[in-house]
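Database export, one record per block. Field names are fixed; values are copied verbatim from the stored entry.
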Amino acid sequence: AYFSENRSVEYIDANKIGNNLLLRNWKHGDWFIPLGMNEKKKLSDYFVEQKVPRFKKQSIPILTSENNIVWICGQRLDERFKVTSSTTSILKMEYEVLHG
């Protein structure tokens, strides 16, 4: 299986993403299906559960594809984009915070 203990690296099924990838900030009403779960979760609830400070959640990049959240960068992947046994093409994503 393709996975990483490093939260700044994720692997996704490249065939499940569309042509319109967008990196943006969190928006009110955002939801995703956290990796390992089968129910939708509001991003605001996820951030509370993960104890992400209110001021910090605006600075966490959200990768979307066709308006669906793919990855909360450095945090959690969406279940719908994970690598499975039927995956034929894998995309490695890395998130790095540059200081300075």
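Remark 1: The mean pLDDT is 91.
Remark 2: The longest strand covers residues 9-13.
End of record.
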